[in-house]
TrEMBL record, chain A:
<comment type="function">
    <text>Converts protoheme IX and farnesyl diphosphate to heme O.</text>
</comment>
<keyword id="KW-0808">Transferase</keyword>
<feature type="transmembrane region" description="Helical">
    <location>
        <begin position="337"/>
        <end position="354"/>
    </location>
</feature>
<dbReference type="GO" id="GO:0008495">
    <property type="term" value="F:protoheme IX farnesyltransferase activity"/>
</dbReference>
<keyword id="KW-1133">Transmembrane helix</keyword>
<dbReference type="InterPro" id="IPR000537">
    <property type="entry name" value="UbiA_prenyltransferase"/>
</dbReference>
<keyword id="KW-0350">Heme biosynthesis</keyword>
<dbReference type="InterPro" id="IPR030470">
    <property type="entry name" value="UbiA_prenylTrfase_CS"/>
</dbReference>
<dbReference type="InterPro" id="IPR044878">
    <property type="entry name" value="UbiA_sf"/>
</dbReference>
From TrEMBL, chain B:
<keyword id="KW-0999">Mitochondrion inner membrane</keyword>
<keyword id="KW-0496">Mitochondrion</keyword>
<dbReference type="Pfam" id="PF10231">
    <property type="entry name" value="COA8"/>
</dbReference>
<comment type="similarity">
    <text>Belongs to the COA8 family.</text>
</comment>
<protein>
    <submittedName>
        <fullName>Cytochrome c oxidase assembly factor 8</fullName>
    </submittedName>
</protein>
<keyword id="KW-0809">Transit peptide</keyword>
<keyword id="KW-0472">Membrane</keyword>
<dbReference type="GO" id="GO:0005743">
    <property type="term" value="C:mitochondrial inner membrane"/>
</dbReference>
<dbReference type="GO" id="GO:0097193">
    <property type="term" value="P:intrinsic apoptotic signaling pathway"/>
</dbReference>
Length: 382, 193
């Protein structure tokens, strides 16, 4: 879930890989006796190598400032920006929108207050989880290109403040969900925070199973949206969760394909590094699963039969890209799959919403059934 | 040269009250004192005299970690000193681990490229003088191998890092609380008089 960063940064980072390789100075495997001059030369070489590496990184306004020493004093006017980056506000927005999708798909009349409270609670819970994740990962984030500009890495905020911020988001967020919506949603929110911070984050460095745990973390928000609306864990909630769960694999596995060097050096256990075949197989498998899950939706009375029909081309396209990634196993196919996943999900959820089975339609059906039952009972009674 | 560095980091060496105590990390930091001294000499920066805060610098070229120069208050309480020393120790441990680790990565990567190119019958540089490279797919074997070779080392480091992180944050909390109580007492005293 913390893989969802700006796609453009991903592109730049993926492009840099080649350039960085070119700039590395050759180190002869035959060890030469180290003299004073050779040490000085090596230092000079490493300095210039590092400089050229620096010049290859994206030239942003920050990069020059980056090389200066900064006083570690909290700047209050920088604080909103710092907290936004600490809480991964863009990812939080995505999480809240998947929760809203879950709420919207629930078969109940739309309750605006409940919707807003559920969205706010989910957003706060996500902010808390993301902040704790960054609190746990400072030295690892420093060593990866994608994450080296995070607030704790740059010393813009102290770890104590990060934890206090997480608590001041998490506690009201879960309280809001438990008291303002229902205890089930609150429990799911609290469980998801725990799963993300205490299971997924440490597991990233221990076992490739972290990807499956992370997929569950991504699947829970739409389930929360559904339970916020209906108050119960119906099959519909699980189906929506299942769709988000399956989507995580093509999305993350494709992204991780281009980050193998950073993962290897940083000590992250990811399928793309340790089990590349499995990585591609799982991505393809779950692309195909999306087709199956879309077909189940009308069976559970969540959508009409138009949904699997309209969504078929979308799901077939991502499956095709998944197959290309499986077969070719190169950077271009992984990038195509990743970028497809970025528009595939919102489009699929939108189509799902437009094909949602009308509440009134279901009521009529229910009445018909009730009538036939009554008639049947009348016949039986003597 | 080293002479210049010594002058500019005079304040730096004052701020690093070296205490020869065994480092809490399990990396075997026996050369703690020497390590810190060479590290200070390399920083090449000293914060302005009037500043009462810590200063954080650009990422280190080897470890990618940002060095911090800690401010030593003349009225530093024992608790505050414990916090500062914990942060200094943690910084030294992290710096040592990542500098060594990243250097090993770069070196092993070069050796791998060299051996693969040799096996293919190619030289390190082609006719145009461009450095020959291996694409990401060919490097995949190296990445997998390097990760599994260093797995135990990472597990050890993870445990140490989590412990240090919690300890330091907890100490920060205690210091913040102590400071807040001190301020409240001072306020009460002033309001009283």
């Amino acid at each position: 879930s913390d893989s969802v960063a700006s796609p453009f940064r991903e592109l730049q980072q993926l492009d840099q890989e080649k350039k960085v390789i070119h700039k590395i100075r050759p180190i002869s495997p035959v060890h030469q006796p180290l003299s004073e001059t050779s040490i000085r030369n090596e230092v000079r070489e490493m300095k210039s190598a590092a400089e050229t590496e620096d010049s290859v990184t994206p030239v942003r306004a920050e990069s020059k400032e980056d090389r200066q020493w900064k006083e570690m004093k909290l700047q209050l006017n920088d604080l909103p920006g710092i907290l936004a980056r600490l809480s991964k506000i863009k990812l939080t927005a995505l999480v809240v929108s998947t929760a809203s999708a879950g709420f919207a798909m629930a078969p109940i009349p739309f309750d605006l207050t409940c919707f807003l409270i559920a969205s706010l609670g989910t957003g706060l819970a996500s902010c808390a989880a993301n902040s704790i994740n960054q609190f746990f990962e400072v030295p690892f984030d420093s060593n990866m290109n994608r994450t080296k500009n995070r607030p704790l890495v740059r010393g813009q905020i102290s770890p104590l403040l990060a934890v206090c911020f997480a608590a001041s988001c998490g506690v009201p967020g879960i309280a809001l969900l438990t008291l303002g919506v229902n205890p089930l949603t609150g429990a799911l929110g609290a469980f998801n925070i725990f799963l993300y911070t205490c299971c997924y984050t440490p597991m990233k460095r221990m076992s490739i199973a972290n990807t499956w745990v992370g997929a569950v973390v991504g699947a829970i928000p739409p389930v929360m949206g559904w339970t916020a609306a209906t108050g119960s864990l119906d099959a519909g909630a699980l189906l929506l969760g299942g769709i988000l769960y399956s989507w995580q694999f093509p999305h993350f596995n494709a992204l991780s394909w281009g980050l193998r060097e950073d993962y290897s050096r940083g000590g992250y256990c990811m399928m793309s590094v340790t089990h590349p075949g499995l990585c591609r197989r799982v991505a393809l498998r779950h692309c195909l699963a999306l087709i199956g899950l879309s077909a189940v939706a009308p069976l559970l009375d969540i959508t009409t039969w138009t949904f699997p029909i309209i969504s078929l081309p979308i799901n077939l396209y991502i499956s095709y890209l998944g197959f290309r990634f499986y077969r070719d196993a190169d950077r271009s196919s992984s990038r195509k799959l990743f970028f497809c996943s970025l528009w595939h999900l919102p489009l699929l959820l939108l189509v799902m919403f437009t094909c949602k089975k009308s509440f009134l339609e279901k009521e009529d059906k229910g009445d018909l059934l009730g009538e036939s039952h009554r008639r049947a009972m009348e016949i039986r009674l003597p | 040269g080293t002479g210049q560095a010594k002058r500019s980091s005079k304040r730096g060496s004052m701020l690093w009250a070296l205490r020869l105590r065994a480092c809490a990390c399990s990396q075997g930091c026996t050369k703690k004192a020497t390590l810190k001294k060479t590290y200070i000499l390399g920083l090449g920066f000293s914060p302005p005299a009037h500043s009462h805060n810590d200063w954080i610098g650009p990422p280190d070229k080897h470890s990618n970690l940002r060095p911090v120069i800690f401010y030593v208050s003349p009225e530093e309480s024992p608790l505050e000193r414990r916090l500062r020393e914990a942060r200094q120790e943690a910084q030294a441990c992290d710096q040592r681990f990542w500098a060594r680790h990243n250097r090993a990565f770069r070196q092993e990567k070069e050796e791998f490229i060299y051996s693969r190119l040799k096996a293919k019958g190619l030289k390190m540089r082609d006719e145009t003088g461009q450095k020959a490279t291996l694409n990401a797919e060919e490097m995949a074997d190296f990445y997998k191998d390097f990760l599994s070779k260093n797995f135990r080392k990472h597990m050890q480091y993870n445990r140490d890092w989590y412990k240090r992180n919690f300890t330091i944050t907890y100490l920060m909390g205690q210091v913040a609380l102590a400071r807040a109580l001190r301020w409240l007492r001072w306020k009460k005293k002033n309001v009283g008089s």
